[in-house]
Amino acid sequence: MMPVIDIYALKQRWKLFLFIAAVAIGASSLWYTDRLVNKLSEKEKKKASIWAEATRILLESSQSETDLNFLFKVIEDNNTVPVILTDQDDKILYYRNLDDVKAKRPEYISQQLESMKKLHPPLVIDFGNGRRNYIYYKESILLQQLSIYPYLQLSVIIIFIIISYVAFNSSRKAEQNKVWLGLSRETAHQLGTPASSLMAWIEILKEKVEDQTLVSELEKDVQRLNIITERFSKIGSQPKLEIVNLVEVIEDVVKYMQTRTPKSVTIVFNPDNHQIFLPLNVNLLGWVIENLIKNALDAVTNEGKIEIKVSTNNKQSFIDVIDNGRGILKRNFNKVFKPGFTTKTRGWGLGLSLTKRIIEEYHRGKIFVLRSEINKGTTFRIVIPIR
Fold it and tell me: Do domains 9-139 and 240-385 have the same CATH topology?
């Protein structure tokens, strides 16, 4: 197994650290608020119990005027906990701290009573002789708001993280676009000068060399160099797409690669349909196929085989590049398209990244690892919409 170089591993660890930190903050907030809510709930329950006892004593009306004033004060001081007083037949005798506007509708009080019954068992006021009153209650508005506060806080944190992540990715993508544009234009400029010079030398060789076979092969390579220069010049800008035959584009690349592939490796391309017309940029899509074939060549060993399949339906066309090489670990299926990720000791990890950019940004398609098994092979799939 070749060593894997992943320059994004540290960044992934930082993302994991930030995620764990956010979860820890949210969990701590939920835990602390839950404790606080439970404490306040117990206090409100005690408050409701005191209110029930004061109501019982007041209803017995056997206290002195001073005691009655105190009891009235206890009852009036409950201005937070919603309570409903009923008799043993569930007839509502009194209520407090409910919505005054809605309370004018009898069904509202009944609905509140049913809700309170589900939340807490009633506080019983026993007058003896089988006569009882019941006090039902629920948490105050403040306690209800406090109980949902940590979820609101957690939602705000999550939204903030999402917005920050999207903004960071957009900024990074814009910066990458500038780097790609600058790098590609500079590369195209650097390649253009020697390519033009070589073309001039070829014309001189045509006149002075009798055997034109060598000159012809040299001319093909220089033409290839011009194609590569053009490819780099298109990276970073929106290329022009033209309706062309996909099969012919792939055939041209396969023919070129077959002459430059070891005899121990076989490249097979037998399309079922020879007429698949799509809006494509010929140079860039040819670059994609070439990169995938080179990637497969790096993966295969002796008796290697690379097969290219093309299929289509009413909406999409599919290109599968299949090899019988060393395979890719499942955890690396997405990583192989990231800049800097490579399994080659001398690789830069840019080939598949460029491939993904060309397919997804310029052709509005998708590229992914369809399947792979260690020491059995890999299948890359390209999906291009038919527009």
Answer: no
